[in-house]
Each structure stands twice: as C-alpha cells, then as structure tokens.
Amino acid sequence: MYLLPSCSSQTDSDSVSAGGGGGNLGSPCGTFEAFMPQTMEVLTGSSVTIPCSFDVPASHESDVDDTCRAIWINDQKIVFNSRYPHSTTNNGELRGDLTKKDCTTTLNNMQSAHSNNYTFRVECNNTLNYSFAEQISISLTGIKVYFTHYHLYTYK
Predict the structure, then answer these.
(1) Please, what are the domains in the chain?
(2) Which positions ≥6 away from 103 have C-beta within 8 Å?
(3) Measured in whole angstroms, how far is the alpha carbon of residue 41 from the centre of its chain?
(4) Mind listing the pLDDT tens digit for each residue in 2-30?
(5) Whether the model pTM is above 0.70
C-alpha cells in the first residue's frame, strides 16, 4: 500500500466536491487524493497489480464503508468494477480493502490494446462517488525471442 505523505501547507478547510475530478490537493490536509505509481510496464498476456491507496476529506471519512466499490477507467470506459469483477475483459480483482483506503487492484490478461492511462474511482451507496485526478500510465511490452544457430560438433 502506498503511504500517505505528511501534511505541510494545506488546511482542513480546503474542499472539493465529491462528484468531480480533484487533483493533487494534499489529502492528509483534508482533500481527495489517490496514491499510485505514475507508470508501469507489463508483459503482454500477463497480470498487473496496481498498488494504490487513497484519502478523502474528513467530511467523507464515515462514507468509506463496505458499500464502496473500486472502478478503474480508461478512455471514459470502465475496465474494472469490483462489484462485477468478472464482467470486464480484464477479469480483475480488488486486492486491497477499500474501508482501509487500499485500492490495490490486479488486472488480468493485459493485451497491447490495454496500453493506456487509468483513473481510479470510488463509488459508495452514500454521498461518496469520486473520480480521482491522479492517473497511472500502463504500457504493454511483448517478449522478444532471438534465435541463434547452434552447430553440433562431435569429438573423437
């Protein structure tokens, strides 16, 4: 799980609407922020586990409950929804515990078409429905196989 940085310059009075985009707002100071790597490179056909954690303003702490689900989006398309993990092309799995603000997720069978920027969204059965501004760029790479010629020599 990615750890939250310490608060330095913002106050709890900084606020953001729970329905919108957010940004790099310094969540320990009371705003929305997700923590994940900026980039990951994945071997085509394999799985990728995205380490992820998030924070919300104090006014939404009680909204982070067992009704919440993790959603990953690219190009305005939902590629993973933890409520229906096997209904997407990636058949992913939420590894983290959203009630602990751990959104670590595994996406399976990554293909070259999955090279993209991914955004995390949390949706709960209350007022907390938020798409975080932070993104991870996932790029796919293939296996390069090189053949060389071997000669068989026999010695007497």
Answers:
(1) 37-141 (2.60.40.10)
(2) 34, 36, 52, 53, 54, 70, 94, 96, 120, 122
(3) 14
(4) 444 434 333 333 333 333 333 333 345 57
(5) yes
Give the integer Cα–Cα distance in Å for 94 and 88: 13
What lies within 8 Å, CB to CB, of 65 at 6+ separation is 99, 124, 126
pLDDT in tens, 62-74: 999 999 999 999 9
> How many other CB atoms are there within 10 angstroms of residue 3's CB atom?
7
Q: What is the DSSP letter of 28?
A: G
- Amino acid 103 reads C
Q: Which residues are within 8 A (CB) of 134 and not within 5 positions of it... i.e. 6 or more apart?
A: 22, 24, 33, 34, 35, 36, 119, 120
Q: Note whether 103 and 71 are within 8 A (CB).
A: no
Local structure of 135: helix, strand or coil: strand
